[in-house]
Amino acid sequence: xxxxxxxxxxxxxxxxxxxxxxxxxxxxxxxxxxxxxxxxxxxxxxxxxxxxxxxxxxxxxxxxxxxxxxxxxxxxxxxxxxxxxxxxxxxxxxxxxxxxxxxxxxxxxxxxxxxxxxxxxxxxxxxxxxxxxxxxxxxxxxxxxxxxxxxxxxxxxxxxxxxx
Length: 164
Known about the structure:
Helices cover 30% and strands 37% of the residues. It has helices at 3-26, 54-68, 134-140, 152-155; strands spanning 36-44, 50-52, 69-82, 85-96, 109-121, 124-132. Strands 2-1-6-5-4-3 form a six-stranded mixed sheet. It is globular. The relative contact order is 0.15.
């Protein structure tokens, strides 16, 4: 097998690990150990934190997310795999049914955009950098974390970008 063929085979194996995990979690499985390495590291963007190990991930991410947002539907728009790494982007569509970032439940249906990256080691996910757009979620709930200074105003022609 050529190096290119071996790389493609590894990419397919990595993607299969990720899809099995996503399918199991979407089906409501809480058997995280089947999919995540014992040295699992989850690294989120600002506002999300860093979780070391499956227990910390469940306690400090998965369960709070479930408490804040019910009736969740996960929509993965695209998967990409490259060797030991895979990635996807998509969104969670959910109902704001519990406290979130100091906002009491509103019953509002929201879209939670995300990008996930995973590194697979020994057939399980070992590293998981994640980017969840909490600013977009907060905006849907009526809180502008940019206090009107977001650069979307440039796109709409409401403000002129400063000169370099």
